[in-house]
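We store sequence with structure; for instance:
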Amino acid sequence: MLYTESVKEDMEFLPSPEALKRKIIVKAKKKAPAEKANESESEEEEEAEKIAVELKADIQQNKKVVAEGLSSLVNICQAVHFHGFEEAKVSGKCYQMSSFCETKAEDLIEKSARDFVAYNTRQLSRIYPSGTRTGSSNYKPTPFWNVGCQIVALNYQSSQRPIFLNESKFRQNGGCGYVLKPKFLCGTGDYDPDAVMAHRASTQLKLIIISGQHIPKANQDLQGEVVDPYVVVKIVGHPADAQKKKTDIVRNNGFNPRWNQEMSFSLKVPELAMVHFIVRDCSTTGKDAMLGMYALPFTSIQEGYRHVYLLDYLRNLVSPATLFVHVSIE
């Protein structure tokens, strides 16, 4: 199952996901091709001594040396150091990829978002959590998706909102693991995330949160407790589209609460937006408990009357809890 095809120096595009079905791709550093041996014995001895000195230097400096066997398996995911967008534009290859700590990537987005988008149209980038996250917490993946980063790695040990959004996003396309980026993140690289307000028309999303069915208690062991549910709807995606609205509270009714409340959202970049439904229990003594939620990409929403099946953070069904809503898009 290993993908073992060699790459050509002038290769412009990576193979498609279709061409890589049921293949395992090895990502690691690739050793440079070995130089041809010199004919002169003296030169051979001199080279051998030089290699020995370099190897010794690599071991005080504590450098990791890629094993020859591993290096030979590396082809379309060759790990390289990132030396700036300008150098990558001039000499970067489609089969070379760089990894960025979340803090480094955030800094690049803040200072050079447009260049980051252009970089991701040519090469793969991988984002990984900071080493300071010793408790396996996670960053928000959406800012990195917004500039076209292909591999946004998360700590899967924790059942938090970032994992929930990641699972929700990648349920698209049959849950195969691949999701196509919007065309403006795949094309010529002239998309500027900081300038979307100026040239993009808005898409209107209108929701009517009609009712709920069988909303559970936060703690099933408490006898006699009745929930006071309300619904929060968040738009997660481009910062220009970040919005949050909520319904009124229905007192003492988790069985069939009725809200009949309309919400309108104006979206500048709907291709990047995710719609996040959260049902909470209003508390007068502490934090409002999360009773169930659901999230899906805006591009996956269908208009009309819909049931929203509520899940927990692990994406297990909170059966048979649902929301009944109406969706319209203009």
User: Anything to note?
Assistant: Confidence is low (pLDDT under 50) at residues 35-41. The longest strand covers residues 317-329. The radius of gyration is 25 Å.
